[in-house]
Write a structure and sequence with these properties.
The chain has 398 residues and is an alpha/beta fold. Helix content is 37%, strand content 16%. A 7-stranded parallel sheet has the order 3-2-1-4-5-6-7, sandwiched between helices. It has a 6-stranded parallel sheet with strand order 10-9-8-11-12-13, sandwiched between helices. The longest helix is centred in the first third of the chain and has 15 residues. The termini are close together.
Length: 398
Amino acid sequence: MRIIQINSFFNSGGPPRIVQGIYNTLEEQGHSCVLAACRERPIADMNIIKIGSPLNKYVHCIMTRLFDSEGLSSVHATKELIKKIKAYKPDVIQLHNLHGYYINYEILFKFIKETNVSVVWTLHDCWAFTGHCAYFDYIACEKWKSGCYNCPQKKNYPKSVLLDCSKRNYQKKMESFCNVKNMSIVTPSHWLADLTKKSFLREYPIEVIHNGIDLNVFKPSQGSFREKHNLKEKFIVLGVAQVWDERKGLDYFIKISKTLNNDFKVVLVGLSDKEKSKLPSNIIGINRTNNVRELVEIYTEADVFVNPTLEDNFPTTNLEALACGTPVITFHTGGSIESVNHNCGIVVEKGDLQGLENAILKISKQNISRITCISQAKNYEKKSRYDQYIRLYQQIII
């Protein structure tokens, strides 16, 4: 098989890990794969097509800021990409995030419809079927079901400071994304699959392929984190995020740190220097790090991983914590609950601060088995997830 994958970038975060995992699995099985992106650092031994230029991305971003036109610029860059796709002659085009200021979805989907090439589109958020936003759960908006207008999240990603064109965007997406002859949709969670089935994309086959993790990397690994931070006798309440925005629940950690007694210590990983400077003194803040070994050691030495996310698809941080033997507490949000059961953690109603604190206290006394947590994580071994993609490609090739 010949597969081309398209995403905004390939170097960090959940979608890029999936992209690289699919690529490696295809190569291992003797297939051919090409990655197309607008932003990436060189990756050894990977066949990568660069989409556009930094100037192209900048102009696209400005157009989005002014005219709410994410996905409608980058005309030349998209036409050049299509030339390269035609030259490669893929059996399947695997789409990931089409937002990110780098591609024109109208031109891309016009080409897809004309060629009848098989397509798999993995939705990592809700952007594909809204008039603007990537998530709407936080504000309980339901306009996306019938047609967006007067977007209440115009100033959220992909931010527009001038116009609100959500009604136009919704119509353009519906016209572009519907009536593709051979397209299948993948979602990383049952939550997102259920939403997609209520959207204008419901005409397509929808398959759930959960995100996976590398269990050879994420496993119990003792380090010196407790000694380094003088936490030997403390019950560590851990939070990890790539970006600590409002929907990740940073404020809940700050409030909890003020009510838990001195036997507990809140540790947050993934903060910027500015965010660290604003934390109360009773929270330990750790900068963003690409040192996975250090992260694994922190997961392992934590007593509980807390994920008070207010909007999420299927967070791999839950899986990473479980794989290191650490129980998980999460809000009942999106697909965050799908990897957690009563044997390895606790699900709390979204926004319930007292419930969050009670769950932490319960786990501090309950002593959930680390072996049980690790066993749950084994259901999400990454190789089996990527094999699901390969089987799907084989099924849909015309």
